[in-house]
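Pasting two entries for a bug report.
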Amino acid sequence: MSTESPSATEGPNVSGTGPTGVWLIGARGSVATTAVAGCAAMSAGLHPPTGLVTESPPFSGTGIPALSSLVFGGHDTLECPLPKRAEQLAAGGVLPHGLPAAVRAELAAADAEIRTGGPLPGDTRSDDELIADFAAEILDFAHRHHLARVVVVNVASTEPTPVPGPDDRLPPSSLYAAAALRAGAPYANFTPSAGLHHPALAAFAADAPLPFAGRDGKTGQTLLRSVLGPMFAQRALAVRAWSGTNLLGGGDGAALADPAAAAAKNAGKERVLADTLGAAPEGEVHIDDVPALGDWKTAWDHIAFDGFLGTRMTLQTTWQGCDSALAAPLILDLARLLARAHETGLTGPRPELAFYFKDPDPGASSALPDQHHTLLTFAARLRDRGAEA
């Protein structure tokens, strides 16, 4: 475990001018590839910004960086280049046919900025050495591109929840999170992995002069639960049981085939129900790896509830979606919002961004309507802070 503080630097560019960097952990994965390709497509006017909340009218004039100003890089242990990965995603129906060729230059430019992550098998570096090397690569990226700031977003595969062991090493997600702090970069954890939530980093995160946000992006089944849970509570309907099943393919499905990783994922799903209903109902979520689904996922929920005079009723929902297409616009939203928050001097956890997370920062509601209202209030705050400056 790291024994030295990953204390934050002043950041890449103390003048605060220049483009914005987006450093993706898991930069050659499906979500990252879709985000990079989608950003290039929207910047070129090839596709509308469907799914980007930050492109809706309430965010006009907030000062968030333009999509065309984002510069991408990241860490990954995979070797498949982004143009090739984009072709694979187009073949699977995730990206539009022809898009990989149309944005090949942008994909290649981002791929050139991806550095080998770790630790890989046989890596003898200590936690502190890994953190220092990762931070140096983030800062080198920022300096070479004359970036005003870099936002680090974790979109890597889900890790099991850390358990104390004989070597007491930090998990990879926490190494990258510590590197973000050391590099002076705002940070978002779009996975259920520990990241900044690791106990060894809690004190450092609390003292960091940087904004950071959440854990575990809310893209499908839990998004629906954050709407339906408040509905039952507001209509005074008693939920007796809430059970679910997820069928996942691709890298996410393979990672969540590990029961420990699945448990980390399910914790956020269960928390939403406990928070919105007042107590966790009976039932649990089962996650099955179905490689044939590729980047697609299916989620079923079965809800048993009591109505007036104890009348027993049920609601069943089916969610079928493309995980990368659901997640990618949220990644771009978070990067832009955290960049603007950093520019205006906001620091610490940002519960205003709970709209995007299963496990938001303390003080946030778990109900989607409340979260959306808070997000719009945050947009107004960013606009006002820009006017003050």
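Entry 2 (this is the one that rendered wrong in the viewer):
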Amino acid sequence: MTTISAVRGVLPPHRYPQAQLTELFGRLCLPDPSARAVASRFHTSARVASRHLALPIERYVELDGFTAANDAFLSVAVDLGCEAALAALTDAGLTPSDVDLVMSTTVTGIAVPSLDARIASRIGLRPDVKRLPIFGLGCVAGAAGIARLHDFLRGWPTSVVMLVSVELCSLTLQREDSSAANIVASGLFGDGAAAVVAVGDRHPSAGVGPRVVDSVSHLYENSERAMGWDIGGTGLTVVLGAEIPDLVRAHLAKDVERLLSPHGLGTGDVARWICHPGGPKVIEAIQSVLDLDEDDLAMTWNSLRRIGNVSSASVLHVFADTLTDRPSSIGDWGVVMAMGPGFCAELVLLRW
């Protein structure tokens, strides 16, 4: 089985309270005072207290198009990705030269060469390192990335693999979009990065950390417009449907059963739920269909409050917080869970 040797989340230094970010969004995107009042109500209900931005807040006035925003993405994303990768490798007791495969994921900027190539040259990964960049999975990519690392290590059990997620959601801000989706997203999403280091079961450090036992994927039919981007001349315009909580209620319980039942487990056997903070309505839907309470998802609620939804990096921040603040006992079971564009779910079964 795959051992998760380290999970580390990092954040840009520019942190602002929700009210200040709401004011910025209104000033840049909503000339109508009544629309600003609507945005304020949405942002208050998001249960987000503060978020981190890729740039100092005053710089956002200068970002007058997709080119400027993506240039900023390239600069900040590589810095944050390197910071997360090096921190995770240090926590795992490994060095960049130990890494055999690096996977990168983002959905908030375009990079060719990809982020993993830029990070590799910066931190000193080997010239023969295997690379796998992923674009388009969005919020689900943190959980999906762990599952795909596990798939690789089943075939290469002596290897060291690393997942690096960087999401700079603030740089996708659309100034001419007063839609409900843009208003909701502007109060929910933040910026950050995370990295996971994992090893196969024939590596010398295997067994030191939670182990991946199994994973489940589910691509829901006829749900392509529930979440994603419309890509045009001004960059990335958010697609965020009101049906997402309903999709969770319709499908997630069966997805969890598919993950747990082959191992003779039920939801009551799971000690740690490591869940992506998709927003209050989504988290409440998860609690409802799995018969969980707010304490079961305390790490998820806390991450939402402190840093917002950081897309693919969010579930990894929750994972890192869980390892630090809610340590598990040997034999405990855990589930890593996220949903995203597709619309889809990815679930990973862990055991300590």
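Dev reply: Rendering is fixed now. As a check, the viewer should reflect this: The chain has a mean pLDDT of 95.
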